[in-house]
Every structure is written in structure tokens, then in C-alpha cells.
Amino acid sequence: MRSFGLLVGLIVVVAVPAAAQQHVLDGSLWTRFETRDIDTGPRTTFTWLQTRVELASTFGPNVRVFAQVQDTRRLGEETSTADASADRLDLHQGYLELGQKGDRSPWARLGRQEYEVAFGRLVGTPIWSAVSRSYDGVTLGTPVGESARVELFGFQIAEATGSPNPEDEYLAGGWGIVPVTDEQTLHLIVVHDRDDAPAETARTTLMTQLDGDHGTVSYRIEAASQTGTVSGLDITSGTLLAAFASAPWADGRGRFGLGIDRYGGDATPEPGETAGFSDLLGRNHRFLGFADLFNDPRANTGGRGLTDVNVRATWMVRPGLRFRADYHRFTLVDGSGFTGGKLADEIDLEIWGEVIDGLDVRAGGSWVGADGPAQTLGLSAGDQVFGYIQLSAGFWGGGPGRSNR
Length: 405
Description:
Elements: H1 4-15, E1 22-38, E2 43-60, E3 63-74, E4 89-98, E5 107-113, E6 135-144, E7 148-158, E8 169-179, E9 184-195, E10 201-214, E11 217-230, E12 233-236, E13 239-249, E14 254-263, E15 273-275, H2 284-287, H3 297-300, E16 306-318, E17 321-332, E18 342-356, E19 359-370, H4 372-376, E20 384-394
């Protein structure tokens, strides 16, 4: 699957006359310095470097090939200045596209590709990650009626090859986008993930999301349920309820928002059961704070569930440059066995935008006040401070990769 997109691309290049071909070279580079200091724990400091080069080729109105090579590294990680092993050099994307995604017509992508469902709660592309995420498989989409749309996807997450992948793993689903009114959009989502391990995972997630505007207020409401098995255990308390709303302030130069995310849980499931809701391959950083305490609320809380009450304020410092401040309070849904269910408070500050023509900056910091349950569950060894600064630039030719910057 990794080389499928490029293989198809080579076949098309040979088969189509050169006069009909159009090629766009694209690429980007960013570097990010990070530091994290944890009370009674380690202090880590390092610098990431991500480099991408990509080629988008059009061979006709309905045939396109996209290939993107990515190298990701921490500065100084090589064994010497002569080390050229490139441990994280990879084909990040390589696919054949029939039709054109985004047009009011059917389309298909076959190969290795980035993909995101709705707001990225269950399946997404975490652009904060230096490696990011891509999927091997096929995505299909078609308009329905005047304004609705349906997308289907099927990905092979792992193919059984012995070590390091002893079992096959799959992810498949569908996503319907239905405009309810001019101001409201309903998303209907089903995702099924499975592996073929002896203690099998066969889990189905049903989710609905409504987003829209009421006057100057923007909102998003989500509800989801998970059933099936995880590692041979039946899922219980597999629910998610979330809501977020924001409104403008200071004559529209900023917005103020309030939200809540509640992942179901149970500290004492019955024998043969496992509790909690997993957000699968979602963009946790977008929902649960920049300090990244949670990459899977089900696993991180031991199935006890998680509630995140959050407040957000944004401010336009000047055109093209924005500031954001977030506050999160994390608590356990089921705090049985602890004297209190509070996990942590988190404050995130960030400024981002174009500082000079062609150069973007993203800088910020987080403070986490970790309570006893967070330390007992291994979420943090103590209070922590996290800071970063990222610089990015690219030579944009209009290829698909730009949409993910």
C-alpha cells in the first residue's frame, strides 16, 4: 500500500501524452523548539525539523496523482555528522485521484493519504505532530441532492507480517454531511475498527455532530456511542457528549468561548467488560489541551472517564497575527478510590501568524497543575511547564499539501 500511489502514478505518466500533463512542485519546511519541565520529573529540551517535498500531476480533468515525501528528525539525533540513515524519511502521501475532491461530482482517492472526518474527533490529521498521520487505503465521495455529501473510507492500519505487525488491523466507515438550514450542518458518522488478535478488537462508533451559527454565536454539539469489544472485552460506558459555543467581543476583534467534553467511564466494570470511550485516531491536541496529557481518554484514565470544562479567548493582535488563551479543568467521571476526582488544571497561551512575508510563527506555553489522581494514573509526575516556538515556510504551488499547514 505504501508504494501503490506512486506505482499507479508511474503507469499513468507512461500512458498519457506529455502534452496533456500538468505538474506542480510544492513543499514546506518547519522547525520547532520545545521544552518541558515537570516537578519531580525530567526536563526535556529538543528541536524538531520537518521537511516536505511534493508533486501534484494532472493528466486530464478527472485524473490526478499526488506524491509527498517527508523527513522528520530531532536535531542532533544522528550518531555522527556523517550519519545519513534518515530514520524518519517516508512516503507520507502517494495516491491516485479520480474526479476532484471538493467538486460537485463523485471522486475517489486510492493509496496513501491524509484524511479527516468532520472536526477530527475520531479520525484526523494532527498537524501539531512532527510526523503527522496518513492512512493506506481508499476514500470515496459523492454529492447527494443539491447540497448534501457522503464519504466512505477503508484503511489498512497494519498488515500481518510477523514482527512488528503480528496481526492485521483495519479502519472503515462512512460520513454524511447534511445542511439542515443555511446556518446549520449535521454530520452523521460511523467508524468500525478491528484487529485479528486472539483477543479481538471489533469496535463500532456511531457519532452525530451539529454545528452552526445563531446570530453571532457559533456552536458545535457532539454525541457518540461505542459498542463491541476491545482486546476481547465488551465495551461499557462507551459514550461521548461534547459542546462548544463562542461569541465575538471587542467589536469583533476577538471571540470568547465555553465548552465541555465528557468521555464516559466506570472504575469497576463487570468481569469480561472494559469501560470508557476512545477517540481512536483523532486530534486530541485540538480538544484536550496543548500540553498533551491525553492521547486516549479511555486508556489514560484507566476506563474511569474524563470531563474537560474549557474556556477560550482569542484576539486579533493585527491582521494576520492572533493570540489565544485556553483554560481546562480535567476531572474523572468516576473518581472511586480517590479522595477527589480532579486531575489537573491547564492554561495554554499561544500566538500565531505571519510575521514577515513568507514566514509563519507559532509560539506558546502551557502550565499544568497536576493533582494526586493525575500522578497516580501516570498522566504527569507533577506540575509542569511546556513551551515552544515554531517557524515555517514553504514554496507553495497550489498542491493538496498546503491545506494541512
